[in-house]
TrEMBL record:
GO terms for biological process: hydrogen peroxide catabolic process; response to oxidative stress. Binds 1 heme b (iron(II)-protoporphyrin IX) group per subunit. Binds 2 calcium ions per subunit. Residues 1-26 form the signal peptide. Removal of H(2)O(2), oxidation of toxic reductants, biosynthesis and degradation of lignin, suberization, auxin catabolism, response to environmental stresses such as wounding, pathogen attack and oxidative stress. These functions might be dependent on each isozyme/isoform in each plant tissue. Disulfide bonds join 139-164. The lineage of its organism: Eukaryota, Viridiplantae, Streptophyta, Embryophyta, Tracheophyta. Keywords: Calcium, Disulfide bond, Glycoprotein, Heme, Iron, Metal-binding, Oxidoreductase, Peroxidase, Signal. SUPFAM superfamilies: Heme-dependent peroxidases. It comes from Escallonia herrerae. Transmembrane segments: none annotated. Its EC number is 1.11.1.7. This is peroxidase.
Amino acid sequence: MASCSTSFSLMAILLVLVLLMGSSSAQLSTDFYSKTCPKVLRTVKSVVESAVSKEKRMGASLLRLHFHDCFVNLGGLSWDVKLGRRDSKTASLSDANSGVLPPGTSSLSNLINRFQAKGLSTKDMVALSGSHTIGQARCVIFRTRVHNETDIDASFAMTRQESCPLTPGSGDDNLAPLDLQTPTAFDNNYYKNVISLKGLLHSDQQLYSGGSTNSLVESYSKDSKTFNSDFAAAMVKMGDISPLTGSSGEIRKNCRKVNS
């Protein structure tokens, strides 16, 4: 474990890893640290709330971290988090970018297939896509959509084009919120945006493109309780994807690299 002199940023990352991924030779459980570290959840909650209050994008970053870990290395809504998950002993940028975690350019069929390959249903996929209710995306990711695609609200496209020129290399790192209406609040407005043809990413709009997921999008746009319930269930299910426990993994001293 890190010493008391560890910097705030490193401590926050370590604590978040404990919360979202969680060590054991057995299976994950919600009371894994009840005896060895009974105050861990309160400590993590305090640190995360502080981090998010200082940088709103942190919430989205933590969700992204959870998606990445479960797919690649096997104030709002809440659910019981299973603890005991360790970090991988290897790290691969190529694996992370291999398409195992669907990119923003994915078609509906690719989204469904990639999630099914990890044991997640189409409903899980649509619910988890709702994580785009917070966070931002770089121009280089949505440039083609706002300039070339037709299933997009014209006014919305023009607004995004202003900070994301068509020419590659120009404004590549400029950011835009994934949720047009409430970019820092976890709610169901993401689905309302998609229905209005205001999905920022190609993969977002694919959820409402006349295919099999239209009805789910409509349901979540009208019923936030159903969305919250399905999202929480899908997050727990995703957390159970091939967890590393005991000697199969490690608790990293620096989340950016494996322990030496």
